[in-house]
Design a protein that fits this description.
7 helices, 228 residues, 3-stranded mixed sheet, single chain, alpha+beta
């Protein structure tokens, strides 16, 4: 006879598993019940669980992106950089992008009472080390459909950096100008030396960013944010 003490009690909240098909509400319920899980996403109603994060192929690129965006935020009152934050986009999609940049007042997104982002941030960055297929296909479709204005994907293994801008409901790839610099259309002064970033030359990346921050278009943007 098996004693009742040897029988495990039924789980009240099932754990998240890769490939689960869930509503957003059920996804949040299970995610919140698993504080040991650091990253899980709901993309088109399916759960994706992140692999362990490697230092050079994810951690270092992520750090460089956050330094770049954080420097822009410091010089641009009224915008906000967030790191690895859950975003409620629609009923079937709750991604957790590696980085995002949003306009705090009068922008497309807001911070809910329970401290999640709701709505599409103006700019999202994904570090695609082992998730290039997801980031460039399913996620890209979701971000496009929900109106993310600029979508940046660093394909670490391919040594490529893609910058997409939403135009008439479609993403078009933005190429560097004659100086090798990509300039944001949504965030004036957010300039990126693509070659320097891929080469690991963060000092050069920040030098070019400072040039963008000194531009008249950035000064005008800061003034407009202050007046909103």
């Amino acid at each position: 006879m098996i004693s009742s003490g040897a029988i495990s009690p039924p789980l009240t909240i099932p754990p998240l598993e890769n490939g689960d098909k869930l509503t957003r509400a059920e996804f949040e319920r299970r995610y919140e019940a698993m504080p040991e899980v650091k990253k899980a996403e709901l993309i088109e109603g399916m759960v994706y669980m992140a692999s362990p994060v490697r230092a050079k192929n994810h951690g270092k690129p992520h750090s460089r992106i956050m330094t770049w965006l954080g420097t822009y935020e410091v010089a641009t009152p009224g915008v906000e950089t967030l790191d690895n934050t859950t975003v409620r986009l629609d009923a079937d999609n709750e991604p957790q992008p590696d980085a995002l940049l949003r306009i705090e007042k009068g922008g497309q997104s807001r911070i809910c009472d329970d401290d999640y982002v709701e709505g599409a941030p103006e700019l999202i960055v994904e570090i695609a080390a082992s998730t290039a297929s997801l980031d460039l296909h399913e996620k890209m479709k979701v971000y496009r459909r929900n109106g993310v204005q600029e979508y940046l994907v660093w394909r670490v293994y391919d040594r490529q950096f893609d910058w997409f801008r939403l135009n008439a409901g479609e993403y078009i790839q933005v190429e560097p100008n004659a100086d090798g610099v990509i300039c944001s259309q949504v965030f004036p002064g957010l300039w990126l030396d693509k070659a320097a970033l891929l080469a690991g030359n963060l000092a050069k990346v920040l030098e070019i960013l400072q040039q963008g921050l000194a531009s008249q278009s950035h000064q005008d943007f800061v003034q407009r944010l202050a007046n909103d």
